[in-house]
Amino acid sequence: MEADLVEATEKPLSAELGLALTASLALAACGGSESDPSRPALVPVPNPLSDIEASRFLAQAGFGGKYEDIDRLKSMGYEGWLAQQINEAPAPSRWAYGMQLKSNDLPAFQNWQVLPNILWQSIFTGKDALQQRMTLALSEIFVISYSGVDVAGPVKALVMAHFMDLLQKNAFGNFRQLLEDVTLSIAMGRMLGTLGNLKEDNKGRRPDENYAREVMQLFTIGLYELNLDGSLKKDSNGQPIETYTLDTVSNLARVFTGWTAPLQFNVPSPDYEVSHQPMTHAAANHSLLEKNFLGTSIPAGTAGPASLKIALDTLFNHPNVGPFIGRQLIQRFVCSNPSPAYIFRVASVFNNNGQSVRGDLTAVIKAVLLDPEARLAADLTGQAVGKHREPMIRLVQLIRTLDYRSPDGAWRLGNTTDPSWRLGQGPLGAVSVFNFFRPGYTPPGSELAKQGLVAPEMQIVSETSTLVQVNYWYSLLMDPQSSTLRTYNDANGNNANDKKETGLSLFLLEEKMLAEQPAILLERFNLLFACGQLSEGLKAAIMSSINKINIVDTNPAKVESFKKNRVVAMLLMVLSNPEYLVLK
Predict the structure, then answer these.
(1) pTM of the model
(2) Longest distance between any two alpha carbons in the chain, whole Å
């Protein structure tokens, strides 16, 4: 089978494909409409009439879907589906699940290899696909990382699991509450230095400025003043206007002093309950100096909690937040380069959900997904439409679309962040607070750069990553049981492995039944994975390769194996192709 698979995928795995992939993904931009940007009202869009329209929406709003999901969406309509998803019971607490695993498997837990499994489980199994997708999107704005949350022992995994719980809890809530919960979380406190941050003293000590800087630059207002449509405001010399200065950072940093938690760093804590509680305030360590920032003045002597409220209210009400956050959510769900009119409409909903409420994330995500530019793109085959699918989103689509099963319910995918043999991406797996990629990233020297467009996800795309990921998909399709197991040190410090029977199982019963009808099988994958966006030329090339894989033999066992070879080869060619990788 290996020789057949190599032949069937020779072109998609060649160096030429890497160059073609880079060129194709450089076109992953959302074309702007000619809508009047002064008109924030959303144009009603018709409900999906075709399977392709439904599949595309499910890929944007969640992780794709099976045939029954497509039928359900067509029956319910966009609004009905969104209402059902918003009211769907959320997945169980990751923290509680982590506590359960800690009790059952402490040696592995102490190596915190269990953390990715805790994070993956809800994403793979939750009926609340939109909430899980929103949680992931928020985790790429409010970023914490394995290395940045330097908490020792099992508490580290629990602290990070609770951080994801906070994002999930606020996914359909209000941005102001989300901002406060993130700010007071132990995970972010360790990531950016607010936990244990001390006031100034007469020996030259100054408050840590990390969080003060990043809460502005990355979490709320960005570097430059914006119009409601996301365009830069300019001064009298035509230059962008900075939102803050070094003095702003120094003053705001005083707000984030005095916050603490009963943890000793580099010492495992026996108190696991602390891992899902917010930081508390120690008044003696809070700066009582006057704090002046962003047009707000907090008088000298103001207590820490009161100072924090004023600061977060100021950030939340800054006019930049709507377009700054709105644009990033559009990028995570729909397209890389939303038009000014699209950003304007989403930012307007952030500012006012129609009931004079600011920061309503339920209204915002509906505005993102139901905008005419999301639903009524005029030319899905054009060069300026869509976005590149992130590796971890593709992984979730694979697991949820095919019949994968976890015997013990633990979903032991493990850490997928190593780019040398896995995805280079996974929940909470970014190497820094700047995420896996930047919202404004443009591949240098690309066609995209010439057009003045961006493709954030391209920052983690290369010929090497393409080949590595195809190999990973191959392992998940051919032998998932072996490729989804952890290695760790046991209680005695010896190397240990999960039992093989605890790995994932994959059942390709329906797909193998279609192996003798490859054209039908290809249309199945085209709809469920590529949203019907594979070109006729590409489908013809895939069919030519697939027909070279023999499925005839007198031995029934070999026939079953040959059928699986066909299914896997075809799916790999779909999953590795730019026409799938760019969701238009």
Answers:
(1) 0.91
(2) 87
